Description:
Layout: H1 5-14, H2 27-45, H3 55-65, H4 67-70, H5 85-91, H6 98-107, H7 121-137
Helix pairs in contact: 1-2, 3-7, 6-7
Pfam families: Cytochrome_CBB3
Subcellular location: Plastid, Chloroplast thylakoid lumen
Family: Belongs to the cytochrome c family. PetJ subfamily.
Amino acid sequence: IVRSSETMFAVIVGSTTAFQAPSKLSLSKVAETVAPAVAAAVLATGAMPAFAGDAGAGEQIFSGNCAACHAGGQNVIMPEKTLEQSALEEYLDGGANEAAVVKQVTNGKNAMPAFGGRLSDDDIKNVATYVITTAKAGWD
């Protein structure tokens, strides 16, 4: 858990070169500039950033809204696109992380409907935490 969002914000903002508009945006240059600021923020707070949601609450929401298609981390519509870690890494836009799950659940994609507006932002964060946590541990 990040103990001080102000500290992290100050460290990142303090890296003014991260916020200068270069003539040609280079991803590697941005990474070189931002990575030290993020690392400094982690060191300054003494903790890694925490998951945004509550996995226990997410499990309940998942059971009521997602399990019809994704029971046990599977996918009854598109069998190759499961919620297993390797499939999330391969198919999820943005990779196997909470932000990518939040985006997919909120907006939907292909056969998956959007749940933004049906579920609260907190519910979606909780589902994302549950999905990522369970994918890393392995679905039963």
